[in-house]
Amino acid sequence: MTATGIGAPVRRKEDQRFVTGQGRYVDDFNRPGQAHAYFLRSPHAHAAIRSIDTGPATIMPGVIAVFTGDDLAADKIGGLICGWMIHSKDGSPMKAGPHPALAQGKVRYVGDHVAVVIAETLAQAKDAAEAIVVDYDVLPAVVDTAQATKASVQVHEVSPDNTVFNWHLGNKDETEAAFARAKHVTKIDLVNNRLVPNPIEPRAAVGEYDFGTDNYTLYTTSQNPHVARLVLSAFIGVAPEHKLRVIAPDVGGGFGSKIFIYAEETVCVWAAKKVKRPVKWTSDRSEAFLSDAHGRDHVTHAEMATDENGKIIGLRVHTTANLGAYLSTFSSSVPTYLYAPLLSGQYDIPAIYCEVDGVYTNTAPVDAYRGAGRPEATFVVERLVEKTARELGQNPAEFRRKNYITQFPHATPVIMTYDTGDYAASLDKALEIADYKNFQQRKQESARRGKLRGIGFSSYIEACGIAPSQAVGSLGAGVGLWESAEVRVNPTGSVEVLTGSHSHGQGHETTFAQLVSDRLGISIDQVSIVHGDTDKVQFGMGTYGSRSGAVGMSAIAKAIDKVIAKGKKVAAHVLEASEGDIEFKDGRFGVAGTDRSMAFGEIALQAYIAHKFSGQDLEPGLKEGAFYDPTNFTFPAGVHICEVEIDPDTGVTKIERWTAVDDFGVIINPMIVEGQVHGGIAQGVGQALLEGAFYDESGQLITASFNDYCMPRAIDLPSFQVGMTVTPCPSNPLGIKGCGEAGAIAAPPAVINAITDALGHEDIAMPATPQAVWRAAQKARMPMAAE
Amino acid sequence: MTTVSLTVNGQSVTADVDPRTLLVQFLRENLRLTGTHVGCDTSQCGACVVHLNGQAVKSCTTLAVQANASVVTTIEGIAEGGDLHPMQAAFREHHGLQCGYCTPGMIMSAIDIVNRKGNALDEQTIRAELEGNLCRCTGYHNIVKAVAAGAQAMAQAPVQQAAE
């Protein structure tokens, strides 16, 4: 390992600009002549629009234009799309209602887009929006996930009972047979609480149109600018693909919420041409709460069957997944193919059957949020495993160990084939770091102080490295999920890597440069990573699903291999040897068995000078591209152990210890990987203890600001003990599994298992706020009185 | 419109502003100092923290006119020439940032914590004092380490504090 190569904790190259305030986020861009957009949003969860009178707004000071859904329709601008087709059990396609960027005839959730005002200043646009007169016929709303299909309210005409799909996976008959012969069946009812992603940078967009060239430019807070360009051009029809440049510069966190193509950027690009001015929109936090895609929101009943030896023999799951008022870009895939295929967890379960009802409600669209389906699956599996162990009177760690998969590859009953792993190794290491053997002593010490101490396990698995294109195509994905890279070597030997991945906190400028440094033997200072601009990078699928290492870097590695191969041809001419005798090692091209060699940079120069070879035999220059399509998903897995102490008098849960042992395969930069783990755990702890998006019965979001929605703060969290085990991933050339979502996936069941362990009963839902825990603690104290 | 005159990062500035202009808008839009960020509209997230007369304030909840005749320091004003402020260097060294959006506010708050609480900060003090700053990326683990290390480093570099 070199100081800047693979495995080194290199300090991040991008940090110089971030710590000095020189980062460039979308809201930092101001274009000449720019006007400001403000969206009038629905105050009602469900209403027919009888009329919209924009007249009074258009004469307000500074107003340039006011547009409604009719204006978009007149220009034949299409609706927003959902890019993953799910088929119901009966083979019918999912029922997707129209999703106009600005409402047409109806609004379906509080925050739905009714009109846009474009004015000289944002303040003027806001003032004018108040002058728009909308005549609403307010309709009853359906909000509750579990009741959505029984409601008399119909969100979309296409779906009379609000069902988008009734989907299933696994083998029903085998599962029923397993339950029929089970010695013990454990049952659980779970709510996976709705969350708001809340990256600290709100979404923003600047649309621009050049009448001279007919070119459009969109600056946008996107995790995947090429996908945004493809959707905006090919499906929504705002601009031809080759005439639309999408730039996603520094982006301040995403966590999934910036994957999707939303109404606001669509309108900004379109309106820029209409008003002949650049148009800028920046979300404020209140808007973000209302209209960024939310996450999770499942209601689940699940049962686990065990035999007389305490082996898990069957799992059956029924989930109702709230998709909100419209199908967001990847929403349909999240509670289906990103969820049920992970229900085997780390366990050898011969029979699994899962049914999922996706439903419409009058709430914000729900889509991928950090983990996307996999936290929901892990919560089901790990709560059930814990409860089963307790009911069987077995130690929860040893019950897990007994049921772990130990032979690889392992085909689960829910379409995944795990390639590698060593789950017991992670468990052993976690037990050691957590000092599990002395837990009872700590519990007694807590009890002496009147406190309840509990310990909770989470043996999670996830499917990352999304994903083999043919495989996801067969499951309904609209596009393949490969990644592209181009490695441009300059005559001076410096290197630019153009990648289809996008960094919004992951540190790609450093880790990707480490790969180049490692492979080409040059300093990371000689490497620039270029991303987030469709005029520079030809195409890419973007960053989500912990895919940038396993897929994005594999594409770079493939391009580097081609650069080295080309370099050998150049070196053969320059060193006057046959190509087969040229070796590339430690940054030098050399002739085998001799001391003749030249540095990588010298060969790069020779490739461009092109004096030493015929341009007809060998093309000058040194630049190679690659598209990498993975052969399988990757399967990061690990064990997290949470230890809590509850004050039964106040209900406050304090996390005393957090142990995370993860197997991410080969690690490029351990400092960055540990940081990803920390951040993921914080979001998972947030879900378990603090966060919840709640609508009242009328569909008003009552947790719509940081005053009301409890974000994790520094004081809510402990320092984390992070350890690693490594089984290299055999499914990509670098052995990487991915690390971005692990913490958010592992954490919620670890916390709830710890709380229920402390309480001595299972009756607690997320978020386990002090109020909820206090009630549960009272129940534990006085079971008769509480019932 | 009303006129405001103040000192920002050592430079005197005077401008006519709409009276409702927030200090953060004035910094970002009038002075193009875009290192100070806006992450919420309820004075909760702290991405907008700057120093007003040496004390941390949330510039999203301060009117520009309130800063009249005052001294304001932003994230762009704390490095000395090419040398990072010790707190900036500590955030980089300890990986106390990921997306970078909350970072300017975090660093300005952290310096203020040191100014108020001294250079030897324990973990609980740092976590409690960071109540007004939200980070969604790091889980705070490395921010806490960075603040502790930055606080110690500031004791070795008194020049930086005098600069404010």
UniProtKB/TrEMBL annotation, chain A:
Signal peptide start and end residues: none
Coiled coil: none
Residues in Aldehyde oxidase/xanthine dehydrogenase a/b hammerhead domain copies: 20-140
One Pfam family hit: MoCoBD_2
Keywords recorded for this protein, A-Z: Molybdenum, Oxidoreductase
Keyword presence, Secreted: no
UniProt-listed PANTHER family: ALDEHYDE OXIDASE 1-RELATED, XANTHINE DEHYDROGENASE
Protein name according to UniProt: Xanthine dehydrogenase family protein molybdopterin-binding subunit
From TrEMBL, chain B:
Record-linked Gene3D superfamilies: 3.10.20.30, [2Fe-2S]-binding domain
KW Metal-binding (keyword) present: yes
UniProt KW keywords: 2Fe-2S, Iron, Iron-sulfur, Metal-binding, Oxidoreductase
UniProt xrefs under Pfam families: Fer2, Fer2_2
Residues covered by the 2Fe-2S ferredoxin-type domain: 2-78
Glycosyltransferase listed as a keyword: no
Residue ranges crossing the lipid bilayer per the database entry: none
Annotated protein name in UniProt: (2Fe-2S)-binding protein
Native organism: Microvirga splendida
